[in-house]
Design goal:
The protein is mostly helical. It is built from four helices and four strands. 58% of the residues lie in helices and 8% in strands.
Length: 132
Amino acid sequence: MSFWRKHGDRFFDGLITYIFRTPSWPSRSLRAGVTLIVAGLGVGGLAGDLSWIDADRVMRLAVQADGGGLSVYWSQITVFFGILLAAAGAILGVIDHIADMRHLRKQSVVVLEHRGLHQTVDTPLPLPYRNA
């Protein structure tokens, strides 16, 4: 039996479940924040470079506004709100994760023995089932 035939159903099940899941609020706010940051940097005319130092050249991070006046301010406000949303999403995600871990730690299994609850005469288990 090939690997794909053996594990393909599980892969497609997981993929479909992942695509059509309902995202949590921290995930939504984190995505919205990243989208606002990218939109603010792209639409507002803000251009940036990354810093890279090599043996024969030096590149640096520089953010400059090509547009003028109001568009620059709107793009800066959009980037600021994007950073706030992304930070809030990250904080809410950490809080949600901590709450989930606490909830999982509190879960326990209670085992009741049926024979001990009634006043009946019971016989012990047969020998092959005792150590299973």
